[in-house]
Amino acid sequence: MPLCVRELRVTYTPTSSSPLPQLGGPGSAAEIIFSRLQHEPVEVCVLLLVNTKHRLLAVHELGRGTLDMCIVHPRDVFKAAILANAAGVIVGHNHPSGEPEPSADDVALCMRLRNAAGIIGIELLDFIIVGEARYFSFKETGR
Fold first, then answer.
1. pTM of this prediction?
2. Residue 21, Cβ neighbours under 10 Å: how many?
């Protein structure tokens, strides 16, 4: 009986010839997240994928949720990072209420992602929540 093998291919197609933007810290990452999510009526979670120099490789939408929640699993975060050959990731999502303070679920997810990142060897650089013209960075607050 013949063996059925599936092949997975990843191709990169740059959208411009300009150099990749370098993320200088939580503020610059929050700007990218905010620009993509500021008008979303529901929670949306995105992933910023970066190379070893913290240059942005891609922005990947991880999921769309409801008014007050979005389901994200660590395997989805790191699957995208591995396929993009990313050295690090920044996870970000919006709070449609406008208040960027993390919920208990946000804190728990950040801890799960940090544990998974340590095992896989892809750095979790930050977990950022954007609200109404403000953001919360786990890195900046030492969490």
1. 0.86
2. 12
